[in-house]
Amino acid sequence: AIIKTALPNMDREAKEEYFVVIQAKDMGGHMGGLSGTTTVTITLSDVNDNPPKFAQSLYHFSVMEDVALGEPIGRVKANDLDIGENAKSSYDIIEGDGMDIFEITTDAQTQDGIIRVRKPLDFESKKSYTLKVEAANIHLDPRFLSGGPFKDTATVKIVVEDADEPPVFSSPTYLLEVHENAAINSVLGQVTAHDPDVSSSPIRFSIDRHTDLERQFNINAEDGKITLATPLDRETSTWHNITIVATETRNHSQVSRVPVAIKVLDVNDNAPEFASEHEAFLCENGKPGQVIQIVSAVDKDDPKNGHYFLYSLLPEMVNNPNFTIKKNEDNTLSILAKHSGFSRQKQEVYLLPIVISDSGTPPMSSTGTLTIRVCGCSSDGTVQSCNVEAYVLPIGLSMGALIAILACIILLLVIVVLFVTLRRHKNEPLIIKDDEDVRENIIRYDDEGGGEEDTEAFDIATLQNPDGINGFLPRKDIKPDLQFMPRQGLAPVPNGVDVDEFINVRLHEADNDPTAPPYDSIQIYGYEGKGSAAGSLSSLESSTSDSDQNFDYLSEWGPRFKRLGELYSVGESDKET
User: Fold this and answer.
1) Last-in-domain residue among 385, 414, 446
2) CA angle 292–294–299, rounded 5-degree value
3) Structural domain contains residue 291
4) What pLDDT was estimated at residue 43?
5) Contact criterion met (CB below 8 Å) for 104 and 95
6) What span, in angstroms and rounded, lies between the C-alpha atoms of 63 and 117?
7) Does 25 share its domain with 68?
8) Among 33-42, 339-348, 509-518, where is mean pLDDT lowest?
9) How far apart are CA 573 and CA 577, in angstroms?
10) What are the TM regions of this chain, as residue ranges (predicted)?
11) Of 359-368, 386-395, 466-475, which one has max mean pLDDT?
12) What sign has the CA pseudo-torsion 569, 574, 576, 577?
């Protein structure tokens, strides 16, 4: 089945969809035949047969004169009954007195025309603008071009409103020139600014001191004249860049700034001088007229035509019999020898004063002294030695030979020192001296005191070991193999307490100490106490003799005193026999 349109010039914008019911019959449509129906939906596709149309023919906008460039100030809209690509339009400003001030662009999402500021506005110079804006379809269908232009226009009026603007300088930048010898408070130049508003507020000028830290310049706050505050020196700084600030007196928030570049012009106030400290070397076998040294000069000034130096000798040195000078074309100076036969022994050093002058106004000059040293040279003119002492060295002995001889002497001295050191270590004995024997610590006391009964000559407490206060008496005659905890001892007792009990307690501790050495050691007790059963153990000034002593009690003191008791028992038996 073929479906055809029954009406011409169908309009999608009027009706987009149509529903058609189709019936099919068999038997050729005769009676008794069967039939069926179906519904067909027909959708009309869009063509670009409608132009864009502005919603209104006149638009009004207002904008402040200080609006930023590129800022949108309004929107216009041209509607198109078509859809999709056929509805897209572009906007242009085709007429008006603000074609170079404003611009219009198309919003791709909303198809609006956005008007923006292209150049700065000035309420004082122009208060309003009139623009003619056109909207046109981008995609045209040639079949419908005869239907009329696919575009539309509208008028846009823009009113500029006044705003409080900052001061405006007469120039965006300033360039001033001043000679470096300018007097203090002399005027270097002037800056001007005005308030563009109708009210025209007075302006005050100042220098941004962040750009003039040394405060070399001042400015008149009323008329903007810049003056010199401190002396200038072109050789120190050729350019000075400062910033001038203009502020409205009625509204201090309205501020403008402008850069001012100050160039310092040169004045001939520096004398030329040698470029460096020169020291020339003259060979003893040199020839007359030989160039000894070429020197150059520098000048801190910067003349327009470049530097030109004049060289001369001091008046009293004009007839110098040894040297002369010659000016070169490249503004340098050559020093020449007048004769030959210079000798280090006769004179080792010559001083040649040279006067250097410039061509400035007024001319400046200075005197530099060139040091000329007489040296011994080889046949090809190579300097070998400039010392007088080197002249008296044996003939044929070069500096390299002297260095080799000196190195040999130093090497011999090092060998001798090493030999002596080794011999000394070899002669040292391997046996440790008795005084350095670490196996014994013998403490000698030369003061014997007044005997056992003398308790007032000295304080008996000083003989007690301080370590004994805590109950732990370390053994100094041997280092224990086992580490043990100190025994809890008795507290120190005052004088007059029975010492026998004190000794018995210590004896018991020594007998039961597993870390004690397996040999007897001397125990020194500074105080024996009164009424001691053992009596005095000292043989010095003892009132009794050995024969009066009974040593049988030693066998009762434990296994540690068993050997001592046997020795004394043997002695007693010998005396009896």
Assistant:
1) 385
2) 150
3) yes
4) 82
5) no
6) 9
7) no
8) 509-518
9) 6
10) 391-420
11) 359-368
12) positive
- For residue 231 the two structure tokens come to 């002396």
- Contact in structure between 59 and 154 (CB atoms under 8 Å): yes
CA 293 – CA 273 distance, rounded (Å): 16
Do both 38 and 57 map to the same domain? Answer: no
Question: Residue 466: which residues within 8 A CB-CB, separation 6 or more?
Answer: none
Residue 105 sits in the same domain as residue 192: no
Checking if the pLDDT of 391 tops 50, the result is: no
What is the enclosing helix (H) or strand (E) of 311? strand 310-313
Inform me whether the pLDDT recorded for 523 exceeds 90: no
What is the value of pTM for the model shown?
0.45
For 320-332, how does the pLDDT look when each residue is reduced to its tens digit (9 = 90+)?
888 888 888 888 9
Residue 75 lies in a domain: yes
CA distance to 48, 563, 570, per residue, from 573 (Å): 155, 15, 5
Are 352 and 274 within 8 A, CB to CB? Answer: no
Are 135 and 89 contacting, i.e. CB atoms less than 8 angstroms apart? yes
| 19 & 59 share domain | no
Three-state DSSP at 219 gives: strand
Strand pairing of 72-79 and 112-117? antiparallel
Contacts 24+ apart (CB under 8 A), 476-480: 476/441, 477/440, 477/441, 477/517, 477/521, 478/517, 480/515, 480/517
Distance CA 554, CA 558 (A): 8
Same domain, 227 and 286: no
Q: Is 203 helix (H, G, I), strand (E, B) or coil?
A: strand
How do strand 168-169 and strand 193-194 relate by DSSP bridges?
antiparallel
Q: CA dist 397 to 345, 375, 389, 391, 437, Å?
A: 19, 17, 13, 11, 61
Same domain, 249 and 182: yes
Q: By residue range, what is the domain housing residue 3?
A: 1-45
Greater confidence, 92 or 442?
A: 92
Q: Which helix (H) or strand (E) holds 502?
A: helix 499-511
CATH of residue 305: 2.60.40.60
Contacts of 386 (CB under 8 A, 6+ apart): 281, 344, 348, 373, 374, 375, 376
Residue 407 lies in a domain: no
Q: Is residue 232 part of a domain?
A: yes
**Would you call the peptide bond into 362 cis, given omega within 30 degrees of 0 as the criterion?**
yes
* 283: β partners: 375
Tell me what pLDDT residue 203 has.
94
Which of 249, 265, 281 lies at the terminal end of a domain, its last residue? 265
Instruction: Identify whether the C-beta of residue 50 lies closer than 8 Å to the C-beta of residue 81.
Output: yes
Residue 265 phi, psi dihedral angles, 5° rounding: -85, 150
User: pLDDT tens-digit profile of 160-182?
Assistant: 998 888 999 999 999 999 999 99
To which H or E segment does residue 576 belong? helix 562-576
For residue 200, give the nearest of 249, 253, 258 by alpha carbon. Answer: 249
Contact call for residues 310 and 357 (beta carbons, < 8 A): yes
Count of domains forming the chain? 4
Domain shared by 260 and 278, yes or no: no
Alpha-helical runs (H) found in 336-398: 388-391
Q: What is the largest CA-CA distance in the chain?
A: 181
> Do residue 304 and residue 372 come from a single domain?
yes
